[in-house]
Amino acid sequence: PACGARLVRLPTESDTYCVNLDCPAQQVQRIAHFASRGAMDIEGLGEQRVELFVQKGLLCDVADIYELRREALVGLEGFGEVSAANLLGAIEVSRGRGLTRLLVGLSIRHVGPTVAQALSRRFADLDALIGASADELGEIEGIGPVIARSLETFFDAPQNLSVIERLRALGVDLASDLY
């Protein structure tokens, strides 16, 4: 791992992982995944730019994307007035992508597009999902105990709830697009 932490192999899995949430490489990958085509689809915010923005202190988590300002971008490598305006426009459009893409973008373990769609069909918004019990989650086709536990773990983490609250305050749509 880029951070020097040791890798951990979870008991029921074959892969090993860096579990350090502050790992710079994981930070870049989480933000780049959030901005990717399969998630919030923010055109112009690929891994290279995310890495630059993290290095410059402009991004620490996914909510920081919605706080980027033209003044901070113009003058950075590859950014003039037009490219900054284009990126900020793409970020603005992404605010309305809805719950399915947001769930994919949040990098919740075991939650990809199929699971995100099932959750969006069942819950009206992210708050309803956060408040759901393991039993309620287990009633959804395709969601077993592993995914239910993964969702509970994600939503039990204060740092994740803090990012979600910031996303809400910054105008990101937390409502289901399929409910």
Q: Termini separation (Å)? A: 40 Å
What is the overall number of helices? 10
Shape: globular
Strand content: under 5%
Radius of gyration from CA coordinates: 17 Å
Major sheet attributes:
2 strands, antiparallel
- Low-confidence parts: none
Sheet with the most strands: spatial strand order = 1-2
Structural class: mainly alpha
Total number of beta strands: 2
Q: How much helical structure, as a percent, in the residues?
A: 40-55%
Order of helices and strands: EEHHHHHHHHHH
Overall mean confidence score, pLDDT:
94
Commentary on this structure:
There is one protein chain. A hairpin with a 6-residue loop joins strand 1 and strand 2. 50% of the residues lie in helices and 3% in strands. The model has no long low-confidence stretch (mean pLDDT 94). The protein contains ten helices and two strands; from the N terminus they run ββαααααααααα. Strands 1-2 form a two-stranded antiparallel sheet.
Task: Give a short overview.
With about 180 residues, this protein is mainly alpha-helical. It has helices at about 25-35, 45-55, 70-75, 80-95, 100-105, 115-120, 125-130, 135-140, 145-155, 160-170, and strands spanning about 5-10, 15-20.
